[in-house]
Amino acid sequence: MAPQANRDALAASKNIKCVSVRWTALSTMRIQPYIMLISPNIGSSCRIAALVHEHMLASSVTLPMEILTGAAQSMERFSRQSLSFECFSSGGGPVAVGSGLTIATQPLEALDHFDLMIIPAIWRHPGRVLRKHPDHVQQISRHVARGGLTVSVGSGTFLLAETGTMAGRSVTTHWQWFDTFARRYPDIKLERQQLITQSERVFCVSSVNSVADLMVYLCAEIFSIRAARHIENQFSPEIRQRFSPSPVGAPRDLHGDELVADAQTEIARDLRCVPSVPNLAERLGVSGRTLARRFKMAAGLSIGDYALQRRLDEAQSLLRRTNLSVTEVADAVGLTDPSHFTRVFKKQLGLTPTRYRTAVRDKTFSPEYPSS
Asked: Where does the chain have alpha helices with state H?
């Protein structure tokens, strides 16, 4: 990304609404293979609206905003496509969300004919937002009825469902609210095994963990495949799958169980101190036996074996990219006994850590782009 001063200048010149925010990037991208096809019908200017309220998860708006803004900036020299990103709330003005971030917004009455609408995830029970913000439901209904491109994140799908426009159509939501959603909206097809769904021009993602995959795909549709690949390679080290509407990744991460996906995120959060199965199950609100069974079914290996694999994956990355000693690498991934680390590493890869580093150091890949 460009320095903040450059970003601010670019935003002013291209009417891009920017918010400065820091967040912890996602540890891994997971998506059930799914072919997504749209015809964006977007002209030279792409106008994006985000609905904002005090109970939203800020990252479900800021992450798409940063990805799309990064794509627009990457295409500045090669395309006339411009981007406008605006936030709207009941009454307008600054809105303080639970994370402490304050977002400048315009009143909902000013929202009219945007190309893409983002419906953010709701923190905790969605019922209070449904009761407090029927005006959001009305705006979503108008946008969907016009055929506008719509992205609903996590439990934001409750607001989408309240419009009555999704009867008989496929959606998904956060796994924690599956049963509540199914009881409240029995005429909507809830896809419990999909992390991303598409029904015509309406996309739903099960959580913030999945929205980055969708936004990279939309970068290709709105801008170009070149822009999408730039975002994959440059925007965030965590978006590192080769771009495709149906990304190909490790089988252990390609599944549709959001509970297991959340467990994998918790495991990867700090590889130096991976939580025990009982502790992990308590965090996720299920029994250890249920978590272990679903994890093995979805990922194809036990929680312990998965944690070891993630540690070895990270160790390979550190050996390739840093000058840390083997002992320091072992400590960084939670395998503090260097002898044990070397033994399990060699069993997995057929080489000791030192020989692996020597073998890969001269084989780094740098993507090449056509010269302008």
From this structure: 4-14, 59-74, 127-132, 134-145, 157-162, 178-184, 208-222, 225-230, 258-269, 277-284, 288-299, 303-321, 326-332, 338-349, 353-360
